């Protein structure tokens, strides 16, 4: 989860988020190189006193400054397209989780199991509560998912547009009324991961957090048996 004075992206907990971070770093390096080059050229233009009274055209330099940005955009576009297709790739999911957005809480259904469904509300801690609790992020019913397995997430809403977002898992998908959107998860380590609705959905938009707990497949099966 994000902490104070942390200016970097959150540590990834899925292969897709790792790829997103790599692409971010790749694009940032290109932007820094462009900024340094343009800044250097502008400083030279400010401080030199060269004048060429006979300069009418420069086809070669115009060709160069057209081709170089094109090549730069290709170096950004190809990894971006690859990542877009990776985000939509879904191979043999182990389980399906259906997430339904309401004003202002989430409902979850484990479609592969009978009667495994629940609502998830934010826990309203006051200032006197234990400091170890996560204010505005804790929920009464967590999502329990097995790690190292492909998981399908189906997202929809009943009232207005919401957005199911967990940064450390690289997931952000809109929940639209009357539409069922699909994405996938692959969590590669145990832990608790936090997210929030990232679509402005009304007065209490800030108070519908998402909490995912990743556990081993053995513990997940025990949880399902105990829940049923």
From TrEMBL:
Binds a copper A center. It is found in: Mitochondrion inner membrane. Its cofactor is Cu cation. Its main location: mitochondrion. GO terms for cellular component: mitochondrial inner membrane. Residues 1-91 form the Cytochrome oxidase subunit II transmembrane region profile domain. PANTHER family: CYTOCHROME C OXIDASE SUBUNIT 2, CYTOCHROME C OXIDASE, SUBUNIT II. This is Cytochrome c oxidase subunit 2. InterPro entries: CcO_II, CcO_II-like_C, CcO_II_C, Copper_CuA, Cupredoxin, Cyt_c_oxidase_su2_TM_dom, Cyt_c_oxidase_su2_TM_sf. It catalyses: 4 Fe(II)-[cytochrome c] + O2 + 8 H(+)(in) = 4 Fe(III)-[cytochrome c] + 2 H2O + 4 H(+)(out). Component of the cytochrome c oxidase (complex IV, CIV), a multisubunit enzyme composed of a catalytic core of 3 subunits and several supernumerary subunits. The complex exists as a monomer or a dimer and forms supercomplexes (SCs) in the inner mitochondrial membrane with ubiquinol-cytochrome c oxidoreductase (cytochrome b-c1 complex, complex III, CIII). It comes from Papilio dardanus (African swallowtail butterfly). Keywords: Copper, Electron transport, Magnesium, Membrane, Metal-binding, Mitochondrion, Mitochondrion inner membrane, Respiratory chain, Translocase, Transmembrane, Transmembrane helix, Transport. GO terms for molecular function: copper ion binding; cytochrome-c oxidase activity. GO terms for biological process: ATP synthesis coupled electron transport. Residues 92-226 form the Cytochrome oxidase subunit II copper A binding domain. The chain crosses the membrane at residues 20-42, 63-87. Belongs to the cytochrome c oxidase subunit 2 family. The keyword Membrane applies. It is a multi-pass membrane protein. It holds the Pfam family COX2.
């Amino acid at each position: 989860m994000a902490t104070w004075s942390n200016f970097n992206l959150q540590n990834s907990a899925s292969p897709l988020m790792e790829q997103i971070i790599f692409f971010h770093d790749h694009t940032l390096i290109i932007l820094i190189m462009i900024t340094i080059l343009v800044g250097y050229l502008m400083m030279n233009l400010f401080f030199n006193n060269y004048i060429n009274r006979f300069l009418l055209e420069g086809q070669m330099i115009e060709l160069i400054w057209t081709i170089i940005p094109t090549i730069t955009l290709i170096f950004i576009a190809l990894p971006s397209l690859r990542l877009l297709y990776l985000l939509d790739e879904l191979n043999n999911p182990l389980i399906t989780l259906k997430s339904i957005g309401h004003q202002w809480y989430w409902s979850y259904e484990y479609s592969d199991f009978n009667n495994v469904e629940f609502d998830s509300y934010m826990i309203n801690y006051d200032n006197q509560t234990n400091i170890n609790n996560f204010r505005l992020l804790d929920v009464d019913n967590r999502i329990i998912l097995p790690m190292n397995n492909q998981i399908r997430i189906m997202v929809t809403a009943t009232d207005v547009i919401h957005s199911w977002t967990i940064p450390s898992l690289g997931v952000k998908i809109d929940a639209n009324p009357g539409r069922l959107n699909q994405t996938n998860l692959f969590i590669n380590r145990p832990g608790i991961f936090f997210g929030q609705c990232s679509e402005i959905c009304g007065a209490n938009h800030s108070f519908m957090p998402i909490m995912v707990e990743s556990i081993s497949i053995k513990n997940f099966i025990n949880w399902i048996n105990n829940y049923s």
